[in-house]
Amino acid sequence: GAVVSQHPSWVICKSGTSVKIECRSLDFQATTMFWYRQFPKQSLMLMATSNEGSKATYEQGVEKDKFLINHASLTLSTLTVTSAHPEDSSFYICSARGGGSGTGANVLTFGAGSRLTVL
Amino acid sequence: GENVEQHPSTLSVQEGDSAVIKCTYSDSASNYFPWYKQELGKRPQLIIDIRSNVGEKKDQRIAVTLNKTAKHFSLHITETQPEDSAVYFCAASIKASGGSNYKLTFGKGTLLTVNP
Question: Is A86 helix (H, G, I), strand (E, B) or coil?
């Protein structure tokens, strides 16, 4: 089945530094990738939608200069949290959707998530 | 935009009993309704989904029903087992024109506890 790899699984950084999280579709080409943020005991909040080769579409209230998303290939999207602050600490999860009719098509497959802690 | 309401927020059942989680959605254009199971600290796993051209779908102990007129859909788990304990999320989405892009709006989740 479709597999999405997300790295790192957890990261601790100092306030003011930037952190990059990678999301890779391992066995299918992801035409669309989504980035979510999840606070403890809460639901998944969509941050942005990224399509390969084009700019990401951000949800209302999400700062695009703060959360940089790059979807440079059909198998890789990255989320960079710039100048991170303690309030950015959260669980970030990506999901990928394949096109066509093969593996990963028309369903969302989630990465394992990345727990970010900003000191 | 789409708004998805999910109830109850917590549900505790005895092993072997059935569990039902209900969701409503606001956008009548929504046409895809997946359910995800998320164990603590892990990724959401798709357990079943239904599209708007179907009223009911079943997979072993799990079933989902959809009422398009009332704009609500439900997850039914029969013969519950302790390993069913997790947070369950419903979601709804609209398939954009061309079918190449859509996004999910999630409910707030239901913490299901199955007591042995």
Answer: helix
Parallel, antiparallel or unpaired: strands A4-7 and A19-25: antiparallel
Residues of B in contact with A99 (CB under 8 A): 100
| Cross-chain Cβ contact B34/A42 below 8 Å | no
Tens-place pLDDT, residues B41-52: 889 999 999 988
**What pLDDT is recorded for position A102?**
64
Q: Indicate if the pLDDT at residue B98 is higher than 60.
A: no
Residues of B with a Cβ under 8 Å from any A Cβ are 34, 36, 41-46, 49, 89, 100-109, 111
A70 touches chain B (CB under 8 A): no
DSSP string, B62-83: EEEEEETTTTEEEEEE-S--GG
Confidence class for position A1, pLDDT limits 50, 70, 90:
confident
> Which chain A positions have a beta carbon within 8 Å of B9's beta carbon?
none
Do the Cβ atoms of A87 and A79 come closer than 8 Å? no
Structure tokens at B86: 């997790």
pLDDT on residue A72: 82
What is the greatest pairwise CA distance in chain A?
44
